[in-house]
Amino acid sequence: MEKWILGIFLMGTCVIRPGAQLLNVMPTIELSEKGVSYRGDFESYEAITALEIVQPRMPLFTQGRLVLYTEIAGKQEVAFDIWAMDSADSLENLQDSIIQAAARFGGTELRATHLHHVSL
Question: Distance (Å, rounded) from C-alpha 70 to C-alpha 48?
Answer without folding.
Answer: 5
